[in-house]
Structure formats: structure tokens, C-alpha cells
Amino acid sequence: MTRLLALLLVIAAAPPAAALTSDDLFDDGELQEIWVHINARDWTELRANFMENTFYPCDIEWRDFKVRNAGCRSRGTGTRNGIKPGIRIDFNHYVAGQTFLGLEGAVLDNLWQDPSMIRERLAMRLFDRLGLSAPREAHARLYVGSARTYVGVYAIVEEIDEVFLQRQFGHDDGYLYEYRWKDEYRFEDLGSDLEPYAERFEPRTHLRESMFSLYAPIRDLVRAINDAREDDPDFTVGPHLDLHALVTLLAAENYLAEWDGVLGYAGLDNFYLHRAAAGGPFQVLGWDKDSTFAWLHMPPWHNFDTNLLSRAVWADRGLRAMYLDALLDAVAAAGDLDKDALRAYDQIRPAALEDPLVPYSAEQFEEAVADVVRFTRERGAIVRAFVQQLGTSVAGRRAGIAGP
Amino acid sequence: MRDRTIGATLLLAVAPVAAAAQVGVEAGRTLRTELHAIVHVDWPDPPGGSESSGLDLRRARIGLTGAAFERIEYQVERDFRERARPWRDVYGNVALSRALEIRAGRFKVPFSLDQLTSVGELDLVARSLAAQYLAPGRDTGLMAHGRLFGPRLRFQTGVFRAGGDAIRAAERRDPRHGALAAGRLVVRLHRGLSAAVAATAGQVPEGEYSLRGHTAVDVPFFRVVAVSGVRRRYGGEVEWRAGPVAAAAEVIRVTDERRGQSVDDETLPPLVAQGWYVRGTWLVTGERKTDRVRPSRAFLRGGAGAIEIAVRLEDLELRSRRAGGTSAGGTRTETLPAAGDRAATLGVNWYLNRFVRLQANAVRDWLRDGGAPPRAAPRRWNPAVRLQFVL
Predict the structure, then answer these.
(1) Number of domains, chain A
(2) Contact criterion met (CB < 8 Å) for B330 and A38
(3) Are residues B140 and B76 located together in one domain of the fold?
(4) Within 10 A of A210 (CB to CB), how many other CB atoms are there?
(5) CB of A58 within 8 Å of any CB in chain B?
(6) Strand A32-38 and strand A137-144: pairing?
(7) Within an 8 Å CB–CB cutoff, is residue B218 touching chain A?
(8) Residues B159, B267: one domain?
(9) Residues of B in contact with A93 (CB under 8 A)
(10) Among A107, A128, A162, where does a domain finish?
């Protein structure tokens, strides 16, 4: 009887499972534990054929939840590998309409190119503080297969999809495109044919719409960028692109010394485009920020001259001031990013050191984390100094220096 | 257009030979060889071809059948329309006694009355769904067969290299496939009435090799799932012939094990496929029903040939042993809702003479998809016409 009462008390005290939401899954306050149930043969095949997008049946277990009949496949571009594969989960791949905590899918980022394993999480934290649309993410220990084999530290990242759009913009019926890196492209005019745009911008919504409906607005955007008047690019580009959001994104990326983003070393990369169903300007959404924190002294206008869009932004006095303003906003928002870095480090350290598939040694991990922490502590002053040197009036006032 | 021309040319070329009766060579009782041929021209041609809605030269088979030294028989047959596996039957047979003969080579695995019936002797244009998708078909093997207790009991038992040629092409190519054991026992219950039971068992390698489920108009209705373990087939059949009337029925059940196929490497409930058909024919012109119908008065030889009416009702269904649950896709789903197809076929066969036959069929099917209400195939009745020449 006593045992029964105790059991009932425990049950009553336990939080109801239904109360959990996707915020709990992406809660970076704790190291999540995720178990991908996947047949041993499928796991072997997924790793062997990691360049293919073949889905394999899998069940996903997190806390007391188990989602059955989900689909898992290898993912990533530069991070794709057969040792520690990145995994995309589609909860509705085999069961139409199936969701998990309201999510249709999620990404298990293998953190392959980030020896510190914390760059992207910190980057997204800064994006969020700057009011940029950013996917939620948290670190997780990942277990695979019937034997619950530990395969390392991953980041579970919110998929940019209709659910994300609903959360960010209050509607999910917009046009969403993932930029697919094909070659060194920087918004040059690709001509009137829509096919070159289709090769670069993969639709994630409105998949059945015509080529014209999907890609004519992108072609118009690119034409406007190429026709931008140096004295007033806002006049030509503004109707096609949310320049304020773009400028904030560029500032955040450059504050973080991102070298593979919108102003990447090999052209555009790692972003989504979104446009409301009713029309209006596109918004650029940042994605995959594991190439950040790489260059402490990178000028925050690095690569501005190579990209047609950023060149137009820089040429315009008002937009340039807005950009410098956004840089100083980033400096302020990143004020305690070092604490976030150390918290993340403390959280994942034991799991990272046990990671059996990580391509970096423990020493490299520790050094990389130290570099990131140093970056978070010193980057603000460096960026502020760069802005100070440039010395525009608006930015100057914000930086506490005398204007021109 | 090209197919049509080839078909017509072949028919015209072979027809005079046919008219001169069987083509064969004999050397006393020591050696005997006969040429045989089967040509099928179908309408409509299979969808997806370069020339849709036209004629299709479906088969162009030529073969030799012979005997030597009274106890040895052989058959070699090649289909000149088949690119993937042009050789059909290639075997030798030694009759040690009436009770025991040994056959070796490539021939049909002894399972399913409908599958074992020569394609030139089918009452309807297409074999039953059960025979097409559940019976193993041809394979290379060794078989003992014979008759016991006079004509009353006939047995066939053998071992074959793999799972037959009706399985998925990927499974056929898989070097891990195991041998197939098969046995069939036919009992003559009464004059014109016989019954048989048959079974096969073989190892299926791990992979997406589940049996196929297609409708009567060749539309897949069951997805591929991962299987591994033993594939077992059980079949029962009855055949009855009385004068111009004949009837047959058959039921086949196949189970595919799914050892270690769950996402947790555990064994899933087996995949179960079962099919049946009931078939009847009536030669309205009164000829006796035999394997090869001979019109009593051939067309253009004082008569109109023989007219036969044929009808078949059939069913094919696939599911997991514990059926039910949600209709999830994926190759490793624990419970697979039953999906099936029931089809009715009406046909008329016109035997112009002993060599030429014109078949006209109309097929209607009702699809069952994962427990959803039955629905008819997009086309209400699907026609199939075949011109056949058999030598």
C-alpha cells in the first residue's frame, strides 16, 4: 500500500509529458540525449552512401517520447562524411502529417568543421539577440542503433520550414528557398532564363508551383541588385529585399567573422530566402554558422567589395550608416557571449571528450574552445575600433567618439 | 509500327510451315527432334513504350524438343523478344523408370497450376495474379519426378539455385541468395478431376526483396519492404475437365520472414502474401477441352473454328501477419495494412485452327489500399487482345 501511494505521488509530481514543447527539445540549458533507432544495415548503408539523400526508416527517442516511422538521411555539404554523418530527420517522411512536438523535421548537425563544437550555437544566440530569424538549437548526446551506441556530440537544430516560418513570422504560407552552392556566385545577373536561378535556389515550400511563379521574383531581385543606383540603392532594391534585415545579418556575420556566409570566400552560401505569400520583399535568413569565430581581426567589411549587393549597401551613405550601427548593436549584444561560450563548454566537455567519431583530438577541442572564448572577449573592442577608424557620424555617436 | 511489321512477317513466314504440320526429324526410335514456336502479338502494347496504343510483339519463341535412346528427353527454347533472359526452358530429362525421372537444367519450379501451364495454353491472356507474383517461375535446378500407383499420383520435387525468376531483379542478382527446395504432389481423384498441393522453401537474403503486388493492369499496389530469412510458399489447386467444360481453382500463400529487420534489429512479423483464383471455360462449339484445343472444323476449312468462353475471378493481397496500425510507409514498418486487388476477367477465345488463336479479354479490378474502402481502377474495363500462333 505504501509503495502504491509512493508510486502515485511520483506520478502526480512528474511533469505531464504533454506539457513538453519543442522549446524543451531545443533548450540549451541542458545537454539533450537523443536516440536514433535505425537498423544496423541501414546505418551502415547511410554511412557508406553518405553523399546520397536516401531516407532510411528510423524511430527517434527523446526523454519519454518515441516517434515511430520517421525518416533519416545523410545531410550537409562540406560537412558530409561517412564517419560521423550529419542527419536530417523528417518526422512525416513515411507517415503523412506526423509531427513531433509540432515539428515536421529537425537536423542533427555533426559539428564536423568546428573543433570547438560551440560556434554555431553561439552564433545563433547572437542572431536571436539581434532580432534576426534564427533556428533554435541545443547540444545533444546522440545514440544510434539497438545497442544505443554513443556516436558523439551533435547539435539538434530547428529545420527552416513552414513550422519555423509560423514561429518567426506568424504565417507559414510564404515562399522559402534554400540557397544551394553551385559556384562562386555573388548576385550577378544570370539573364532572363529562370533555370540558373532554379539551380541555386531550391524551393522548400510551394513545390508544385510553376517556374515563373517560383523564380521570376528572384530574377527580379537580382536584376534590381544589378541595376542599383549608387546614390540610392534602397530605391531599386528596397521593394525586392528587406534591406534592414539584410544589413543586420551582414553585421552579425561579419562581427562573428563568418567566412562562409552571404559574403563568403567562395561567393554566397548558407542562407535561405523567404518572401510572404502575398508578395513584398525577400528576407535573407542565416543558416549553418559553424565557420564563424575564425578570424579575430577580420575587418567587419571584409568581402564587401566582391559582392554586388554589399557593394551597393556600402556605396549608399544611409545604408552604410545603418550597417555600422548594426555592427555596434552586435558589439553590445555579444557583451556576455563569453559566458555563453563557457557555459556551453562546461555542458558538452565530458561528452565531447568521449566522442568516438570526432575528427579532432582533445587538445584541439580545448584549444578551439579557448580561441572562441578569446574571440568573444576581444572581438567587440576590435570591431568598435574598426568602426571608429571609419568614423561616420551615426556610428561615431553610438561608439562614443566624435563624428566627422 | 516496327513491332507490328515484325509480328506480321513472322506469322506469315511460319504459317505455311505450320500448315504442313509439325516440323520434326526422326531417326528411327533412336533420335527424334521437333521444332516448336510460340508467337504472341498483343493489343494494346504495354504502357510506357515508344509506340503506345499499338500492337506489341510480346513473344517470339522458338525451341527444340526431342528425345534420344527412348529414355532421354530435352528441350531448348529461346525468346527472341526477351533481352534480359532470352533462354526459357533448357533442360535434359532422364527417365529411369515410370516412377522416377530426373530433370536437370533450367525449367519451371514445380509450384502453381497456372504458372506451370504453358503460355500457349492459357485460357486467358494473362496468368492469374497469384501465379504471376507469388509462384517462383523458372530456375536452374535438379528435379526428381514420376508417377506412382499408376496414373493416380504424380510427384515433383527438386532443388533450385535461387528463388525463381518471378522475384525482384535485385534479389535475383544478389549473390547471397540461397537455394530453393520445392515439392508438388498431384492426385487424380477421378477421371478429369485432379487436385494438388505444393510447397517451396528458400532463404531470402537480407534486403528490400519482398514479393511484388501489382493489379491486374500492372499497377504496383504494395511497396517494397525489407525481408530476411525463409520464404515459404504453400499452394493448393483443383482442376476439373468434362467434355467442353473445364474449371480450376488455386490458392497460394507466401510468407517472407523479416528477421532482424526492425529499426532495433529485431524480428518483425512476417510479410504474408496470399492469392486465389477460380477459373472456368466452356467451348461453345462443343470440342473437348484439352491442353491444346483442336477445332473440329477449322476456319476456312469448312468451319468457323472453335469458340470458347472463359471467366476468372481472382484476388491478391499482401500484409504483415499482424496487420493493422497506421498506414506508414518505409521498408521496416512493423504492421503493414492489408493491400490487395480483386479482379474479374471475361474472355473469348477463337481457335481458328490448331495453330492460330485469337483471344479477347476484358479485365476489371477493385483495389484495396491499406484498409481504405475498395475502389475501382481508373478504367472500368481494360481490354486485352492477343493473336497467338503456336507450332
Answers:
(1) 2
(2) no
(3) no
(4) 10
(5) yes
(6) parallel
(7) no
(8) yes
(9) 329-330
(10) A162
My answer on whether A115 and A181 are in the same domain is: no
**What pLDDT is recorded for position B372?**
52
The pLDDT tens digits for A51-99 are: 999 999 999 999 999 999 999 999 998 899 999 999 999 999 998 899 9
pLDDT of A141 higher than 90? yes
Please list, in sequence order, all residues whose beta carbon lies within 8 angstroms of the beta carbon of residue B5, skipping any fewer than 6 positions away. none
Do A204 and A151 share a domain, yes or no? Answer: no
| Residue A368: inside a domain | no
User: Chain B closest CA to A119's CA: distance in Å?
Assistant: 33
Residue B222 in grid coordinates: 504494395
| Structural domain for B61, as ranges | 1-95
Answer yes or no: do B265 and A40 touch at CB < 8 A: yes
Residue A362 inside a domain? The answer is: no
- How many Å apart are CA A119 and CA B390, to the nearest integer? 76
Q: Are residues A297 and A238 in the same domain?
A: yes
Identify whether residues A178 and A318 lie together within a single domain. yes
Number of domains in chain B: 2
Distance of CA B81 to the CA centre of its chain: 18
Q: Could you tell me if B175 and B113 lie in one domain? A: yes
Q: Specify whether A246 is located in the same domain as A102.
A: no
Q: Given B262, B327, B329, which is nearest A39 (Cβ)?
A: B262
Hey, is the C-beta of A145 within 8 angstroms of any chain B C-beta?
Answer: yes
Minimum CA–CA partner of A54 in chain B: B330
Domain end, chosen from B63, B95, B127, is at B95
B105 with B73, same domain?
no
Report the residue count for chain A: 404
Q: Do A39 and B226 count as a contact with CB atoms less than 8 A apart?
A: yes
As given in the structure block, the three cell numbers for residue B72 are: 532421354
Per-residue pLDDT of chain B (391 residues; tens, 9 = 90+): 455 555 555 554 455 445 444 577 777 777 889 999 999 999 876 654 455 557 888 889 999 999 988 899 999 999 998 888 899 999 999 999 989 999 999 999 999 999 999 999 999 999 999 999 999 999 999 999 999 888 899 999 999 998 888 899 889 889 998 899 999 999 999 889 999 999 999 999 999 999 999 988 888 888 899 999 999 999 999 999 999 999 999 999 999 999 999 999 999 999 999 999 999 999 999 999 988 888 988 888 888 899 999 999 999 999 988 755 556 678 898 888 889 999 999 999 999 998 999 999 999 989 887 645 455 455 578 899 999 998 8
Cβ neighbors of B287 (< 8 A, separation 6 or more) are: B244, B293, B294, B295, B296, B306, B351
Can you give the residue range of the structural domain that contains A123? 24-162
Cis preceding linkage at A203, omega within 30: no
Q: Are residues B305 and B247 in the same domain?
A: yes
Spell out the long-range contacts of A371-375 with Cβ–Cβ below 8 A and sequence spacing 24 or more.
A371/A116, A371/A293, A372/A116, A372/A118, A372/A119, A372/A122, A372/A293, A372/A341, A373/A338, A373/A341, A373/A342, A373/A345, A374/A296, A375/A257, A375/A293, A375/A296
> Which of A137, A162, A187 is the last residue before a domain boundary?
A162
Would you tell me how many other CB atoms lie within 10 Å of the CB of residue A388? 15
> Are A94 and B329 inside 8 Å of each other by CB?
yes
CA A175 from chain center: how many Å? 18
